[in-house]
Amino acid sequence: MELGLQFENILCWEESAAVTATREESMETVIPEYCPAVARIVETTGKLCIREKLVGEERCTVSGSVKVTVLYTSEEAAGLRSLTLNVPFSCPFEDRTLHKCRTLWVTGRLLLAEATVVTSRKLYVKVLPEITVTPYREGTRRLCCGTEEEPTIRRRCASLSLPLLCAVAEKECSVTCQSMPISDHPPEDLLLYNAVPTVHSSQRVGNKLMVKGELWLCTVYRSEDRSLHRWEEAMDFSQIVDVAELPEEADYVLTAQLGDSDVRILRSEGSTTFGITAHLCLCISAYCRQSAECVTDLYSTRCAAALERRNVSIPVRVPPRSIHEDAALQLDFDSPPAFVCLTDWDCGNATVSTEERGHMLRTTVHMHILYLDDTDAPVSTTRSVEVSAATGEVNGFVTVCCGRPTWQCSGSTVRISIPVIFSIGSKEEETISVISTVELTEEDRAKSPSLILRRMAEGETLWDIAKQYRTDEEAIRNANHLEESDIPSGLLLIPKLR
After folding, report:
1. Tens digit of pLDDT for each residue in 120-171?
2. Residues sharing a CB contact under 8 Å with residue 267, sequence separation 6 or more, in sequence order
3. Is residue 4 part of a domain?
4. Do 420 and 452 belong to one domain?
5. Of 29, 249, 351, 474, which has fewest CB within 10 angstroms of its CB?
6. Cα(358)–Cα(106) distance, rounded to whole angstroms?
């Protein structure tokens, strides 16, 4: 007959391999009538905004737009000018790993944003976004945790305590901030901006998660006298998001992705400020330790027990660890520049290599710098800095991102520093041999000896002996006057259970 088993499901999320695709988009655009004609393009930058993801059978489509900003000069008006336009894109993915995924995380970066002059009032714009999707699935692992009530059954159990990724979620929110008043050289026209969100802390209260962070804003603007200026400020924000579906006893890891954003010049009586409305996507990973009692072995003192087993692999996950390095660049000018600003920056993918000194992480940070030359003409240049960091063995994914830059001007020298954060995730498997079925067969034990004397072999346990002779460990200890902590030596008396 088959023994009735009891099972428990362990909930664990697991991620599939990320899938990356690029999509080139281009368009011609006419310069609006309210903008002066283009004489020379100084710089082109772009911001990637992901708006929608549609998941179907073995297919996913990510769509959005690239907000392209073109800085240019004109013969019709003095000072640097700016034109902003949106280039839509739609990036399809066809991959089986996307089939029936519970959650799909989407990240992206812009590999190219360029504009060329067709005529003085027409531009050709080309962008190349790179989109990466990471599918997550909610999975369960079935473990034997007990049996039906049967007095002849002896069970050996193991207590499991496994760190798991127990949930992932995306939460969207909108942040509105206002800068301090700008007293010196108030802006006439906003030319370009960058915004970097950072999550500092989170605290769960009931079904809500209180998120606190910082939104750093850096703007390049033209004042009334046509001169260029830079304004930067870090503004605190707080948000409350609903996390009722996430486990309460968990450690949360949050990252904030900047979506669509809008920066405006706010003028009031005697005061000029910048106002920003930014849409954020909060990517939440919940890690928790799950405990379970798993039956690892069993036998019957009356029947022969035939056990069928199967191996169950459980994805063990812990919060990723981070390594921080700086991408440092020094610019030396012939004379102190009238204006210099970092207008855009990005890092490439992280690579892992094995060297004599261990495992090394590497990436390249690309910086776009806008400055005025000796003739006060705006000039843009691009520099690349390689960043490396030593690490231990890498057995999971590695991602990299750039933080908020800082710069110092000392005479004719400008030093730029950008924090680079390598995030190293774990990807290990805990394999457990699980009992799936037990078949019991009645046997006549009338002719078996009532007493057995034997020595314990090397590596053998009382459980092994009790199982072999269909007795139990307690009976052996009682027959040999052994305490729980005693290590048997010499001959053991193996009693027969009636």
Report:
1. 999 999 999 999 998 898 889 999 999 998 888 999 999 999 999 999 999 9
2. none
3. no
4. no
5. 249
6. 32
